[in-house]
Design a protein that fits this description.
Mean pLDDT: 90
Number of domains: 2
Order of helices and strands: EEHHEHHHHHEHEHEE
Distance between the termini: 53 Å
Shape: elongated
InterPro entries: BTB/POZ_dom, KCTD7/14_C, SKP1/BTB/POZ_sf, T1-type_BTB
Largest sheet: 4 strands, mixed
Number of strands: 7
GO biological process, one term: protein homooligomerization
Low-confidence stretches: none
Strand content: 15-25%
Pfam family, one: KCTD_C
Helix content: 40-55%
Strand order of the largest sheet: 5-4-7-6
Protein name: BTB/POZ domain-containing protein KCTD14
Length: 223
């Protein structure tokens, strides 16, 4: 291989040295250029990598100067994982953005039973109700403690609605509050491309519990 390498990464063109690409011998990127090249070439003879080219510049800058990016951190982290550049992965995991996501938020959500399944259930219910409608809503019951879970069940039995359509979150043993969990639900559904908002759900007159203690309405807007 020539010591000067031309790359086409997802349509973005880069020129660098072979030694830069092989700086971390155990990485997937180094393996691509070790021995016989394991990559296809484009019509101009440049090695082609089918990854987002926008973020490869941050990977390359790190390999050249050990500079850890402060922009597009989440996206660069995904690319660092793909290229398996272990030192960059570790440094990015210490950044506020990744640390907060992996150590704080995801560790909290791991303690909320069936969190991921409930997110998918909410989306299925909302999509089922979206026919010929601009908006559809999903009622969510959020309980933080076992005591609240029992009270919520009593409240559910008094609700004049299909109880199967109410998605229940909790209880959990962690510091974050109900409002923190509601923010997480909105964040994760929006990350899937949906437009969503939520508000306390006010039940019908004469309801024997303060419904806003447990129940929230998530509103999906389709157009």
């Amino acid at each position: 291989l020539s010591p000067i390498v031309e790359l086409n990464v997802g349509g973005e063109m880069y020129t660098t040295t072979l030694s830069t690409l092989k700086k971390h011998p155990g990485s997937k990127l180094a393996e691509m250029f070790t021995g016989q090249p394991k990559l296809r070439t484009d019509s101009e003879g440049r090695f082609f990598i089918d990854r987002p080219g926008t973020y490869f510049k941050y990977i390359l800058e790190y390999l050249r100067s050990n500079q850890v990016p402060t922009q597009c951190v989440q996206d660069v982290y995904k690319e660092a994982l793909f290229y398996d550049i272990e030192p960059l992965i570790k440094q990015l995991e210490n950044s506020p953005q990744i640390f907060g996501e992996l150590v704080a938020r995801k560790q909290f959500l791991a303690r909320v039973p069936n969190y991921g399944e409930n997110i998918e259930l909410m989306i299925r219910i909302a999509r089922a109700e979206a026919v010929a409608s601009r908006r559809s809503s999903v009622i969510v019951c959020v309980v933080r403690t076992e005591e609240d879970a029992a009270r919520c069940q009593d409240a559910l039995n008094s609700l004049d609605m299909d109880k199967k359509s109410v998605v229940k979150f909790g209880p959990w043993k962690a510091a974050p509050s109900i409002s923190d969990l509601l923010d997480c639900i909105q964040m994760d559904i929006e990350a899937k491309g949906y437009k969503i908002s939520f508000q306390p759900h006010v039940a019908e007159k004469g309801f024997r519990f303060k419904s806003q203690d447990f129940f929230y309405k998530f509103l999906f807007t389709w157009w």
